[in-house]
Model the fold of this input.
Amino acid sequence: MRAEGFVRKGEKDGQYYLTFAVRSLSEGLVDDAWVEQVALPLMRSAVPELLWPCDLGTVEGGFMVVRESTHRFSRLSQHRGMIGEKLPIFFTAIGRAYLAACSKEERDGLLMLLAQRDDAIGALARDMDAIKQLIATTRERGYGISEGDWDQQAPFGAVAVPLKCGRRLIGGLNLIFPKSAVAEEELLNRYVPRLKKLALRMGRNIAPWFD
Done:
């Protein structure tokens, strides 16, 4: 299965993870080669510049799903095994960045899907005033941000930007760090511009996969 690309070796001996190639078994062939061939090399080369770990996520089933990550390469990472992790759109930086960047049609579809839930996600999806405010604030900033708003990752902050190939929205890139470790000025002046540069370069390089 590893040779066929359905599993990948984890960070620890004897540890393996399913890859997104398994989706082709039930949903038809999906070309995800750009993640391994373009996104991963660019993300890995950006580690010395970004320092903090970075995740690439795409939307699936109303969540941002981590497709690739530099947690295993960054010395500052406090997470492991993030690939495949489902991140709630409303409460994470990468989800907010994606929501603010997607088309009205896609956004309406996401909200309709999430509004069927009977938890905090569903309640927020039905609160259109709160959603509009979240989108407006994110667009005004020019990036998504979370200050531990997701209970599961309360000690950590994150910033994120959308990943686009031309006008096509592909996903998002985030940067994760302990909330107390990065000052706001450093975040805005150092890390956000570098993350945007990575997203721009990646968007250009993946163009052949989305023509």
Notes: The domain at 32-210 is CATH 3.30.450.40 (Beta-Lactamase). The mean pLDDT is 86.
